[in-house]
Amino acid sequence: MLTIHKLLPQGQGLAKVLLQRAATVELDWDVRQKSRFAATDSQGRELAIFLPRGQAVRGGDVLVAEDGSLIRAIAAPQRVLKITACATHGTAFDLVRAAYHLGNRHVPIELQPDHLKIEPDHVLADMLRSLHMTVVAADLPFEPEGGAYGGHVTHDGHSHHHHSHGAGHAHGHEHAHSHSHSHSHSHSHDHAPAQPAGGCGHAHAQSKAQCATGAGCGHCDHHDHAHHPGQGCGG
């Protein structure tokens, strides 16, 4: 059995030829998020992994055994929910909005420019569909976002670090002047009515008849139809 205590994020510092020759181990996120686990690599060798507490294994990371052996980790495909904005009426903002609501529920989320991924959850899937998102179950590698504080390497190989600024760069920005300005005039603004909770924010011009034919994203003012199972807006 090979004992492993060391990990090289994305194989940093290793020659490409070494990465190509390295054995591999395919692991899903449930295993890779643990710092201690057992596995079997592509050469049939049993591995005992003991990493520092809190360190997750990302696809592309290289495990270094005590005898110097290199084992490249591969993110195994697993069942996830892939979330995209409505293909007809959606915008990038819809994806941001969905990520915000998922973040409030503290679930692991993989963030991509054009989609999100989460682990299967029918309650969250229903919530996302109510936001007019398209939700489809698929078998894909899952690399959820890491913590916002402390250095970590994401699935795309970029290193993110928490920067500690000196006194000259404090983000509190204590200003010498006061910002409590007293205005003698009234700020009475007419604001547009807020969107109702759960709406997608899109103005759908299609008629009820178009809605019944499945035109566009399938949403109309009456909402008197059901989505295709496993999908949402655009399904």
Uncertain runs: 149-229
Quick one: how many beta strands?
A: 12
Largest sheet features = 6 strands, mixed
Q: Write down the Rg.
A: 24 Å
Strand content: 15-25%
Strand order of the largest sheet: 2-6-5-1-4-3
Helix content: 10-25%
Number of helices: 5
H-E string: EHEHEEEEEHEEHEEEH
Distance between the termini: 48 Å
**Residue-averaged pLDDT, rounded?**
76
Report on the structure:
This protein is α+β, with helices and mostly antiparallel strands. The chain is 16% helix and 24% strand. It is built from 5 helices and 12 strands. It has helices at 16-21, 29-32, 92-103, 122-130, 208-213, and strands at 2-8, 23-27, 36-40, 46-50, 62-65, 70-75, 78-85, 110-111, 116-118, 133-140, 152-153, 159-160. The strands form 3 sheets. It has a 6-stranded mixed sheet with strand order 2-6-5-1-4-3. Strands 8-9-7-10 form a 4-stranded antiparallel sheet. The longest helix is centred in the middle third of the chain and has 12 residues, at 92-103. The chain is elongated, with a radius of gyration of 24 Å. The termini are far apart. Mean pLDDT is 76; it is low at 149-229.
